[in-house]
Give the backbone structure.
Amino acid sequence: MTAWNQHAREIAACMRRLYQRGLTTTSGGNISVRFEQDTILMTPGGTDKARIKAADIGAMSLHGERLSDFKPTCEAEMHLAIYRARPDIGAIVHAHPVTASAFAAADCPISNRLLCESYVILGEINLVQYQTLGSPQLAAAAAAAAGKYNCLLLQNHGALTMGSNLLQAFDRLEVLENAARTTLICEHLLKAPARLIPAAALPELQALQPNQPPPEAG
């Protein structure tokens, strides 16, 4: 099995897993993996997420040239723009998990400081201001927002996570949804004050965070 085929199998399996776990819808969400520095493997548009297979996965160049016979997702440019902005990123998962998506539509943030796992795995969560789905404006806004973050909420749209590999990006998406549920229960549903991880303990947890991008100058 070639490396290309192996990656395609993993992408298809990950997308089916997203759907099976209720983290996206039949028509929603997309996954991509950097196969080579300038080649991106990607899920297509208009494909049943529950039945997607390796043969459905296509390829594009980093600058948008179609390298295989497939219909790219409408969010292809958003993926490509992030890869261009973040050479360290190896995989992107975009989906519509219900609770995290609710926070993307609400005027309140998801807390990453209620559980140690959330703080370590997610880091800070950035909000991308509303842009029409599939638009060049959304692609540009997401790429700009991804500069110092690995987890994005797309306002009135969904969630997007990044990682050095597909497993890390998928893990962040799952943990983001869990953090959203925990925030909803602790801070909103129960209307009780939540106990945040003490600020003094954060540096020790920061040392455990994998692959954090360097801070921007200035």
Residues 166-189 form the longest helix (24 residues). Strands lie at 30-36, 39-42, 58-61, 91-95, 125-128, 151-154, 158-163. The chain has a mean pLDDT of 92. DSSP finds seven helices and seven strands in the chain.
